[in-house]
Amino acid sequence: MSDSAFSLQQVQHWMQTVLTDSAGLGAAMRGPAAQTVLPLLPQDVEQLIAPSSRMSGGQRLAVYQRGYFARLLECMAGQFQVLRQALGPELFEDFAREYLSVYPSQTYTLGELGARFPQFLAETRPDRDAPPAERDSWPDFMIDLARLERAAFVAFDAPGAENQPAPKLTTADTALRLAPCVTLLAFQFPVNQYYQAVYQGLEPPLPPAWPSYVVITRRHYQLGLFDVKPLQFRFLQWLQQGRSIEEALTLLATQPDIDHATAAMLWQIWRAKWLEWGFFTTG
């Protein structure tokens, strides 16, 4: 088969198809995706890729394919550093390779590469078909950890309040708004404690299940991850849903053992801390 029968567009499409297939060069060329573009077999690759003095055309193409996936795996490891430590480098790479075969990169930016990794871990957990009461807990922890790391990665580039004046203790409640980069997350495990310990250079054991509530924000271009109490989390959810602080306080006063005076007192305590942590803007 002569390469003169192939258009440049066909060749480009074929190369993209085989280079981005995680199955390996030979399997990629035999696969239906590549065969649909150009019906070539591995021994035919020399028609498209010229050999060098040291390598055949197929070997040269394989170098590019390995380099492409090495870069993707490097990006995945960078986006999920704590999860990589929790799983161990080899097991993490196994998960990442399988993920890339199921959810290959689809965008021009590698920032979206790990977007569906938490979903993938949930879909492929080994005990996914078992009743919930019979499932192991460690996959739940890994999924929680992946969710936290992905959310932190997204928050780093999310719209923030860096160009707006920071609110002060004297700022009126009516002027306060949650910063646009604030992310609220609920987990089955204390994943933020584990996350913080790893970033401090420690090697913490996997924790037992314990519900946790985390707020991610960014202040002065630095991320902050903060654990909050369930009631604080609910209050912040009300604000994120568009309620005013006054409306959120009214709802807070309907909670068990909390009246209007207690709600007002709690708000003053929370307010000072949350202003310091960068939860609010005046925009």
TrEMBL record:
It comes from the Bacteria. InterPro entries: DUF2063, DUF2063_N_sf. This is DUF2063 domain-containing protein. It holds the Pfam family DUF2063. Residues 11-121 form the Putative DNA-binding domain.
